[in-house]
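Re: that chain you flagged

S.,

Sorry for the slow reply, it's been a week of failed gels. I finally had a moment to sit down with the sequence you sent. For the record, here it is as I used it:
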Amino acid sequence: MRGFIVTTKTLVLFAMAVVGGASRKAAWEQCVGGAMSLRSGYRLWARLHRAQAALRAPLWRVTPPPPSESRDPLEQFLAHVHVATGGGPEHPPDAFARAQRLLQRPLLG
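Prediction finished late last night. Pasting the structure tokens below so you have them in one place:
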């Protein structure tokens, strides 16, 4: 399987756009501006969805997740990453890079 490289900034902005209500297609096109195929965006989304479940336990060891009204697991995960990495009032675009440094492991396995 051939891989592709995406920055953590692109990944977090993509996830935040989808959680914010954009379709995955619209969010991906906004984040990469046509530089990568839509199929790549869907593959990346699937990898992120799988990875977030495995990252919850290591994040829990850092800090418990914040209370959330959301039923969306990815929105809960983003909030947990934000709190665990010492984020301020807004989700910083480098939250996933901070999480990788904090947990000493790649975000997507």
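What I noticed first: The chain has one domain: 8-103.

Talk soon,
D.
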